[in-house]
Amino acid sequence: MSFNLSCIVREAGRQYPEKAVALHANGTLTFRELDELSDRFAAGLQDAGVVPGNSVALQLPNLPEFLIAYFGILKAGAVVVPMNVLLKAPEVEFYLANSGAQVFITFAMFADEALKGAEQASVHKIYVVGSTDFTESVMPFSELVNRPSGPVFEPRSPMDTAVIIYTSGTTGTPKGAELTHFQLYMNSDIPGRIFGVEEDDIVIVAVPLFHVFGLSSILNIVVRFGATMVLLPRFDSTAVLQSIMKYRATIFEGVPTMYVDLLSQSDFDDYDLSSLRVAISGGAAIPAEVLEEFERRVGVVILEGYGLSEAASTATFNQSAAERKAYSVGKPIWGTEAAIWDKTNQPLPSGNDNVGEIVIRGYNVMKGYHGRPDADAEAFTGEWFHTGDLGYVDDEGFFFIVDRKKELIIRGGYNVYPREIEEVLYTHPAIFEAAVLGMADPRVGEEVMAFVSLRIGATATPSEIIDYVKERVAAYKYPRRVEIRDVLPKGSTGKILKTELKADLNEPD
User: Fold this and answer.
1) What is the mean pLDDT of the chain?
2) 125 CB contacts (<8 Å, ≥6 apart)?
3) Domain assignment of residue 67, given as a range
4) Which of 122, 181, 298, 336 could form a disulfide with 362 if both were Cys (CB 3.0 to 4.6 A apart)?
5) Rounded-to-10 torsion of CA 215, 216, 219, 221
């Protein structure tokens, strides 16, 4: 049996040929155009020597060219390796070398670092979007799409790898999660049905498409169900608000910090956001204060889900506004099982006193880490994948995330969950963003520390913040040190980078 994920764009091209798949700064891309241009791109890759199973690295922001290249790589039977546009040369080298990429597609704005990394990795077939400076080995993106081509559709097995998506590498070097054609198709079909995506939906795409959230939970779903996406090359609060109003968008998907940024806009209430029928949050746990404020001011429910790169993006989800439970990440999606295990890999009963590691199994769990059988052995117990996230399940089967296993602070023998303290910090009227982590302490082992940034025009001192939290949590939990910063470091999706904050403390991760 053969199956290629790119069938979703082929079928959409037939069913909605003149409908817009993407609205972008320079116009509109229709489903027919995407199907035809990705055929040309696939043929161009074949002319460049790419054969089924080869890896092709894709380092682009949210542009039409990303869509064309993504589906073109799949049509050619090759493996897509999405890469963050902000990677530095040594990181680019690692991704290219580790994935065995034969071809590299990048963006002119980031070409300096990209080309240095490619040279070190000995990748000599490089195509650049938006550049006019070319050499024998660095060619324009248009070189791959300038030849007419009939349909290209290399047959693949459902269990062949379609995408290698790299984890953030919180410890050691990043690991490449191998996701199959079947897994990614199912993770577009099942979640898309859960929140009822239809062809008349208009989805704001501010999450980077090179991230598993943007790739699997937005791009693939939009194409699978014939909806339309509004491509924003990077997240900008004003651009998001203007786009929702201009295009009468019906769905917004974002990470928690995006919701924080949107709500912080002084003119937020001046925008007509009434076209939104659903908002979706993923990538990290959303603070309760942020969820409540957004729902109150916009009048739309935020459905929170949970997943990770190794689960093709989605593992649990709040099924609908009627079935959702606030502050929960929902229940396992169809075809997926989740459980809470203790340190001896034994299942724990329901209840918020029974916090353990979340483990999952199902069709959406990756094949394994690319070239890392050692990491596979550590991550899997049989078919069960250890997520590294701590949580509990209630009597109704709703899962709640408490924290990352590696972020757990053990202070004087007591467990302190950073997220719990962050939730309190977010209720402080002066605090804009917060991150809590542990710092080494000779007396109690680990001490609780908080990094915060303040709302525009707000004032607060570290001692005031400490006292505020001290009044609201048990004595062993409140931060003994608070550092106020202008901004907190963030990754490409807007997620706060605790690893950078920890590095500032001169402590190993």
Assistant:
1) 92
2) 48, 49, 102, 103, 104, 137, 139
3) 8-14+31-179
4) 336
5) 180
Instruction: Give the residue among 282, 286, 284, 306 at the shortest CA–CA distance from 295.
Output: 286
- End of a domain among 179, 203, 228? 179
Name the helix (H) or strand (E) containing 448: strand 445-454
Confidence bin at 509 (pLDDT 50/70/90): very low
* Per-residue pLDDT, 288: 85
How do residues 228-259 score in pLDDT, each as one tens digit? 999 999 999 999 999 999 999 999 999 888 99
470: confidence class by pLDDT, cuts 50, 70, 90 = very high
Question: Which residues contact residue 346 at a Cβ distance below 8 angstroms, ignoring those fewer than 6 apart?
Answer: none
Domain of 485: which CATH number? Answer: 3.30.300.30
Amino acid at the residue 129: V
Q: Counting Cβ atoms within 10 Å, is residue 272 exposed (0-12), middle (13-18) or buried (19+)?
A: exposed
Q: Is residue 283 scored above 90 in pLDDT?
A: no
Nearest in space to 428 (alpha carbons), one of 469, 456, 462, 461: 469
- Position with higher pLDDT, 295 vs 324: 295
Question: Has residue 109 been placed in a domain?
Answer: yes
For the residues 451-464, what does the mean pLDDT come to? 96
Q: Are 230 and 257 in contact (CB under 8 A)?
A: no
Out of 134, 149, 179, a domain closes at 179
Cβ neighbours, 10 Å, residue 215: 27
Rounded CA-CA distance 426/432 in Å is 7
H-helix or E-strand spanning residue 176: strand 176-180
Ranges of beta strands (E only) in 345-395 are: 356-362, 368-369, 380-381, 384-393
Please check whether residue 185 lies inside any domain of the structure: no
pLDDT for 413 beyond 80:
no
Q: Residue 469: which of 413, 497, 440, 431 has the closest Cα?
A: 431
- Does 435 map to a domain? yes
Residue (of 81, 153, 69, 67) closest to 117 by Cα position:
81
**pLDDT over threshold 90, residue 125:** yes
Q: What tokens does 283 get?
A: 């990538």
Beta strands 202-205; 228-231: pairing state: parallel
Instruction: Kindly state whether residue 248 falls inside one of the protein's structural domains.
Output: no
Q: Which residues contact 362 (CB under 8 A, 6 or more apart)?
A: 315, 332, 335, 336, 337
Residue pair 77/154 in contact (Cβ under 8 Å)? The answer is yes
Domain of residue 65, CATH code: 3.40.50.980
Q: How far is CA 333 from CA 15, 207, 215, 360, 465, in A?
A: 27, 22, 18, 11, 39
User: What are the tens digits of pLDDT across the range 303-359?
Assistant: 999 999 999 999 999 988 788 888 899 999 999 999 999 999 999 999 999 999 999
